[in-house]
Design brief:
Growth Hormone, Chain: A; globular; 16 helices; mainly alpha; 80% helix
Length: 407
């Protein structure tokens, strides 16, 4: 090999497939923790004698803590090894989930949920970064899609189990189940870590100026990202998307329960279809991307979401919510996946910082959307609110698609 030649990448088959399965299991627990409180709002409102807008803080603080803390875990992963930090993070997540189950008043529950959001931030971003380290770019997309299936299934399971326990059992039970899930995932990750080849344990950042950069370099990297107009447009788009989609999604169980008399268990089961729609996109994404292309994926995705939101808000029967929730999830992942791809390429020389900024804007958008929706639901008819959200999301999607086409 000549001195100026780049050494070949490690052979990825040396990494056992079970190592990726373990990460998906950790993502499953993270997904459950994210969405488990959505169908619990009415139960928590009665439990603590508070308004629904007040108890929605258990969702909001999780998203805020997740959005902030994930920016801090990159340096830890680069210093001690990403796989190790993910494994240890699972044990911390198990502990914070138990804190949620042990909360004796609402203030304690909010603090526990904040800690849960901060600890869960260690899992998904570092898992994606580790996959980027050990899997070549040509093979990375299907591996990431399979990994994200764990998160999608966790989202659905969290809503279902949360609704079931809110209706018939103790609301604390789901947090105990989540703690057990994290405990199993952490032990499995530590066991598999001993089987990983040396290159999969390397302590390095993905690229200069990435998430694993030193604090000063990290700050400069974010400023570089914000200097670029296209990056600002992507970040604003994902912030609005997160606010409108999850502002709607978090209150679907509550809305169906209050408006149509559906039990929280049944309402949670319907929201599971959102995740199944996302699973459908993960499976058929190569076909959909090939047929539609990125610009039309955005247009079709945002149109499907708008129609689904209006259907859920105005349908006289919960039966129509069955296809609507599925279409909602499919449309969301059609748009969000396209935004993700653009985020990974909007500032190639600062890819790590760009993706971190993208994820933070997404979760901050969720926090704002959930807080605003919780406040407005006490003052505005849910159907009217669904119209406003659907129209705003539709305009945002078309605006981004047009900007993408011009670029």
């Amino acid at each position: 090999m000549k001195n100026n030649e780049i050494p070949p990448l490690p052979i990825t088959p040396a990494v056992p497939r079970s190592a990726f399965v373990a990460l998906a299991l950790a993502a499953f627990g993270s997904g459950m923790s994210m969405r488990v409180a959505d169908p619990m709002l009415i139960r928590l409102s009665a439990e603590f004698s508070l308004a629904i807008s007040d108890v929605s803080a258990v969702i909001t603080v999780f998203s805020v803590a997740y959005g902030l803390a994930q920016l801090l875990f990159g340096p830890l992963g680069d210093r001690y090894g990403k796989y190790l930090v993910i494994a240890v993070g699972c044990f911390v997540c198990s502990f914070t989930s138990l804190l949620c189950a042990a909360a004796h008043n609402f203030s304690t529950l909010v603090i526990a949920r904040l800690l849960a959001g901060a600890s869960c931030a260690a899992l998904i971003p570092l898992s994606m970064a580790w996959i980027g380290d050990v899997v070549s770019y040509a093979e990375r997309q299907p591996v990431l899609a399979r990994f994200m299936i764990g998160l999608i299934l966790g989202n659905g399971a969290g809503v279902f189990v949360g609704g079931l326990c809110a209706d018939h059992l103790d609301w604390r039970i789901p947090f105990v189940l989540i703690a057990i899930s994290f405990l199993v995932a952490g032990g499995y990750l530590l066991r598999l870590r001993r089987q990983l080849p040396s290159h999969a344990l390397a302590r390095h950042a993905l690229d200069s100026g990435g998430v694993g950069a030193a604090p000063d370099s990290l700050l400069k990297s974010f400023l570089k990202v914000l200097d670029i107009a296209w990056a600002r447009l992507v970040l604003v788009s994902v912030f609005i998307e997160g606010a409108l989609v999850f502002g709607t999604l978090a209150f679907i169980p509550t809305s169906l329960h209050l408006r149509l008399g559906l039990s929280l268990t049944a309402a949670g089961s319907l929201v599971m279809l959102f995740g199944i729609g996302g699973l459908g996109f993960a499976i058929f994404s190569p076909l959909l991307v090939g047929i539609l292309g990125e610009q039309r994926l955005i247009r079709f995705g945002v149109s499907m979401m708008a129609i689904a939101m209006l259907t859920i808000g105005y349908s006289p029967s919960w039966y129509l919510s069955i296809p609507a929730c599925f279409v909602f999830g499919l449309g969301f992942y059609m748009m969000h996946n396209t935004l993700q791809i653009n985020a990974s390429q909007m500032v190639p020389e600062r890819r790590g910082a760009a993706v971190a900024a993208f994820a933070s804007c997404f979760f901050f958008g969720q926090a704002v959307g959930i807080a605003v929706t919780g406040y407005l639901l006490e003052k505005v008819d849910p159907a009217q609110l669904s119209v406003c959200f659907a129209v705003a999301l539709f305009i945002t999607g078309l605006w981004f698609a047009a900007a993408y086409g011009r670029r």
